Every structure is written in C-alpha cells, then in structure tokens.
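A student in our group prepared the protein record below, which I am reviewing. Thanks in advance; the entry in question is below.
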Amino acid sequence: MDNHSVYANEELGSWTERSGLLDQEAYLIKKYIQDHGRLIEAGTGGGRISLEINKAFKDLDIVAFDFVAEMIHAAKTKSDKIDFMVLDATELSVFQDATFDHAIYLQQIVSLVPEEKIFDVLNEAYRVLKKDGVILFSFLYYQGRKINTPLSVMVNIIRTLRGQQWRRQSLPWLKLGGKINWRFFGKGQATTYWFEEEEIRKILERIGFKIVEIKKDNMLYMVCTK
C-alpha cells in the first residue's frame, strides 16, 4: 500500500468533501497571497484551498493539481475557473522554469511523498516559482504529536525484527477513512514523514529558499521566497 492508494480509496470521500480554510491557512493566505499573476497549488485534493483563494482573489490565474485522478474529477465539478490537473509533484515538466508568482504546498503534501523523493518535490517547487515569488508550506510536525516518539520506537522495533530499515520519522497512518488502522504494525503500510523544524529548515535553505515566517501548532507552517 502507498499514499496514492490511500487517497484513491480510504481517504477519497473525506478529502473531496472538505471545504473552507483552517485558521493558519487563512492567516497565511491573507498575509502573503496577492491578487495578481499565477498561482499553483500542489496536492489540491478536492480543491478546498484553491476554491477559497479563487473566491477572494478574482484576478489570480490558478492551477491546482493532485496525483489522484479521482480527486481532480471531483474538484472539476466544483469550478471551471481553476485549471485542475492530474500531476505528480515530483515531476512538473509541463511547466517552464519561473512560471508562478505564488505556490501553495499546504495540506502537508511534502510529508506524503516517499522519503527518497522529498528533494525532488522541493526542487520542482523551487524551479517553477518566479524570483521573489512566495510559497506557503505545511509539514507534518514530529514534535506536534506527543504519541510520535513511543509509536516510532514500537514500529521500528518491529521493522528491525523483520530485517527492515529503521525509519524514525516515517510512520504508518493511525487512521484510515476516519477509522483506526488496525494494520498499523503490519508490513507494507503506507507511511507519512514527520519533519523536525531544524531538519526542514536546512533542506529548504540548501535548495535556495529564503524562510520568511514559521508558525507551529500540531503542524509546521513555513513561508518562503525564492
């Protein structure tokens, strides 16, 4: 099982039906997004965030994509003013360098790709953003969920006994489709990556992003410019 399978099946209904903005999202969008140019949203799901941005910023040209076709099919039924596309965040070759003035990488999209592809996603985000463009990120925050440390220890003991690699911050889903994932300790589970603040700060700066603001609750929000 991988995260594409999770979102195309167990999580499909939940993510296509969601609407409105979270408080932190609303704060960041109001503060940093301007009503001009082009905006791209990665991991749009059912279009929740892009639909709200489109209501508030009428002059923005919005492209929103997701790697789950079923999500995009649902999003397209909600608006014909947004260019909804099926794409993978690791490979955005359909867009030229420096195409977008704004980028939205909320809904923890970077935490949902395999560990070995995280740099690919962030490098592509940097490439398609214009110089001085603004990008909003949210990441699953390791210290933002108290249960993570004991869960990590238990999961990785089992991984070690199976002869698998120890992966401290890659954790299986606790719930799937709103229900407890009783297969949590099973082999071959889809995982999400929980970042530590200093870790992702260094990664973003190494790629070339300039960090403007950081906000933390149970998630880690970071605003960057190119």
Remarks:
- The two ends are 35 Å apart (CA to CA).
- Helices lie at 3-8, 12-17, 23-32, 48-56, 69-76, 118-128, 148-161, 197-207.
- DSSP finds eight helices and eleven strands in the chain.
- The longest strand covers residues 129-140.
